[in-house]
Amino acid sequence: MDIHKLPCYNMFMENTYLNTTNSTIKYIGLNNSECKNPVYYCRSKKVFLSADDVEKKGCLRKPTADMISTKACQWLMTTEEFEKYEESRKEVTSSYDREYRARKRGYNNG
Q1: Range of the domain at 69
Q2: Is the model's pLDDT at 20 over the cut of 70?
Q3: Looking at the 3D structure of the chain, how many domains does it have?
Q4: CA dihedral 85, 87, 90, 92 (to 10 degrees)
């Protein structure tokens, strides 16, 4: 039986989606391709976006809740902000993980 012919089959069932086969790509962009000129990062979709992608998607002019005015998307950040965010996240996460693992092993049970 060929699983590719099953009605429920999609690309997620293979390990060929996103970073598994594209591990050499530094900046994953829209449609699982490489972003050539990354300016922004979307925290929701976890992809890098160029200025053209942001304009095409309308990320800088999302409607507000009252549907009267527009604002920038809450998930959008520049690549510089993303790099700073990642650095601080790694520091906090690594220290937390060390403390958590130590408590799990029975050390530091204050």
Answers
A1: 27-105
A2: no
A3: 1
A4: -70
